[in-house]
Design goal:
alpha/beta; 12% strand; single chain; 2 domains; Helix Hairpins; 5 strands
Length: 300
């Protein structure tokens, strides 16, 4: 059985840890609220922009004559994946879930895959296991702006336009609510009216569009040359926002669970400490009583 000194040392250590986890929980809760407000504010616009992109991609004339980002390659020889993870840990299974989904998807693709890592955790894992990481982006600001993710989107578009990648996918964690976040792998380029579902499985086609073909003025090339890159950047921006909200939610829940576990462990240790102290007091009283009895008998 542990001594009283060892139990006191463990109680002091766990109390300090619980104070740290509680502080981290409060910080994560504050960041989570800001991230949720930001992602919920931009989600309707991003969803509508994605619907417009799908409509453009489903047009009868939506081919390379309109814009290269709409051109589907006849044969896929290489794939790029924009993997969005966190820079820090202590967020439960947030990083493991999206990394596992990405690795499974890479195994199903059947062609060489390269990664654009957003976040240290995904970058470190992929480099540790010999995956090809062509670029990395870390230390994104907490108040994310579109300009902060523009280099990520530009790199993905350049890789596709230069022919280094025939398809580009987004791998991120979709924010559902504070307790639920789902890993999502979605095809970003080339644009088409179908997406892949969670865990990298092939998704069913979207609902058929009933709109007719668009009429572009002054001309399709000039309009799409501006709209398609901007909307593509917006999809990357929204994916990073979803990932940030999911990260802070997962970290807040993980730190709350850690604090509750520490409090439960403290209660058990205090009970053990009191039992050990009472046992020590009882032993001392028995020793005193035994000594007094022995002294009384010796005097007789």
């Amino acid at each position: 059985m542990a001594t009283l000194r060892e139990i006191r040392r463990r109680i002091r250590s766990i109390r300090n840890i619980s104070q740290v986890t509680r502080a981290m929980q409060m910080v994560a809760a504050s960041k989570m609220r800001r991230a949720q407000e930001q992602v919920l504010a931009t989600r309707p616009y991003a969803e509508k922009a994605w619907a417009v992109l799908e409509d453009l991609a489903s047009q009868p004339s939506a081919n390379h004559a309109l814009h290269p980002l709409l051109e589907a390659r006849p044969q896929v020889r290489a794939v790029d994946i924009v993997l969005i993870t966190s820079d820090r840990g202590l967020c439960g299974g947030y990083n493991q879930n999206i990394i596992r989904a990405t690795v499974q998807f890479m195994g199903k693709v059947g062609v060489p895959t390269r990664l654009i890592a957003v976040g240290r955790r995904g970058r470190d894992f992929m480099l540790r296991y010999g995956r090809t990481v062509i670029a990395e982006f870390t230390d994104l600001p907490p108040r994310l702006r579109l300009l902060d993710v523009t280099p990520i989107a530009r790199l993905a578009m350049d890789e596709f336009l230069q022919g280094n990648a025939d398809e580009v996918y987004l791998a991120y964690t979709d924010f559902i609510n504070t307790l639920v976040q789902k890993p999502v792998i979605r095809r970003l380029l080339p644009l088409k009216p179908t997406i892949t579902a969670e865990q990298g499985e092939e998704g069913a086609p979207m609902r058929p569009r009933t709109q007719g073909e668009y009429i572009y003025e002054p001309d399709p090339v000039r309009i799409l040359g501006t709209v398609l890159p901007r909307f593509t950047e917006l999809q990357v921006y929204q994916a990073v926002l979803e990932a940030l909200a999911s990260e802070h939610s997962a970290r807040m829940v993980a730190m709350r669970n850690a604090t509750e576990n520490a409090q439960e462990l403290l209660a058990n240790l205090r009970l053990t400490y009191n039992q050990a102290r009472q046992a020590a007091i009882t032993r001392e009283m028995l020793d005193i009583a035994g000594g007094a009895e022995a002294l009384r008998r010796s005097r007789r």
